[in-house]
Amino acid sequence: MKKITIIGSGNIGLSLANGLVNKNYCKPADITLTRRSLAALKAEKEAGFCVSTDNNAAIAEAEIVVLAILPQQLKKVMEEIAPNVNLSKQIFISVASGVSCEAIKAVLGAEARVVRAMPNTAIAIGQSMTCIATDTASADDITLVTDIFENVGQVITIPEELMTAATALCACGIAFFLRAIRAASQGGVEIGFHAHDALKMAVQTAKGAADLLQISGAHPEQEIDKVTSPKGCTIAGLNEMEHNGFSSAFIKGIKLSACKAGGLYNEG
Q1: Helix-strand-coil percent breakdown of the chain, rounded to 5?
Q2: Closest listed residue to residue 131, CA positions, set 166, 100, 86, 182
Q3: Which residues of 222-260 are buried (b: 16+ CB within 10 A; e: fewer)?
């Protein structure tokens, strides 16, 4: 079993670690977690994970190094560990938004094996949509990274130039869909339901819509057509939303998030 070090054990890093253990991909002792404060990793230490505040010591025996830190902090951390990386032995997986493989190799070394991965916070329940990409890493490395993230959701391999766009659509997208569900529940309250009932109804309806597309493979408009009858209430509601810019606002939000994500590394 390969040894894994996750540098930056926040929500994404911890969810990945727990997901790998829960799916029996590896044991807690195979994973080293780093964080500035060990107190924040007390539960993980008790669960059998190795924990450390020393990034260099943490990567010493690692074959897989996951860089799960904010893009603004990534360069500093990479400069810290660069003298101690083993380029022939280690593969680096970066989940930092907007940081190219080339930028990572510029710090770690030109021969570094780098694969970028962009999961979302549904990784915590094993339902992430993770996009992965690389520039020069091998097919075997891509297979390895795919296998890792398939333990915590679905994976798609995309060209690296689309990774920033994937950040907006999948990682930021969680918040966009949550806001849509929240808005639906608020609409439910306005038409007479108690808040907790309205939220439950909105959540299950959204889940049903997503499952409908995923299981049937249908296009959204095909399913929309099934519930829109002439002069009916569904088409009236859809048209009112479109008149007020629903689709346009959603698209513009995704585009703006993509632009923002592309510049985060340079803000560090």
Answers
A1: 60, 15, 30
A2: 166
A3: eeeeeebeeeeeeeeebeeeeeeeeeeeeeebeeebbeb
Half-sphere exposure for 238 (CA within 13 Å, toward CB): 12
- pLDDT tens, 137-187? 999 999 999 999 999 999 999 999 999 999 999 999 999 999 999 999 999
**264: helix, strand or coil:** coil
CA dihedral 250, 253, 259, 260 (to 10 degrees): -140
Alpha carbons 161 and 159: distance in angstroms, whole number: 5
Q: Where does the chain hold its CATH 1.10.3730.10 domain(s)?
A: 173-261
Give CATH superfamily name and number for 4-159.
NAD(P)-binding Rossmann-like Domain (3.40.50.720)
Is 68 annotated in a binding site? The answer is yes
CB 84 within 8 A of CB 55: no
Phi-psi region of 99 (alpha: psi -120 to 50; beta: other; left: phi over 0): beta
Local structure of residue 129 (DSSP, 8 states): E
- 224 annotated as a binding-site residue: no
Which 3 state secondary structure label does DSSP give 47?
coil
Is 22 annotated as contributing to ligand binding? no
pTM above 0.85, yes or no: yes
The correct CATH number of 173-261 out of 1.25.40.10, 1.25.40.20, 1.20.1250.20, 1.10.3730.10 is 1.10.3730.10
Residue 81 assigned to a binding site? no
Q: Is 70 known to sit in a ligand binding site? A: yes
| pLDDT 10s digits, 195-225 | 999 999 999 999 999 999 999 999 999 999 9
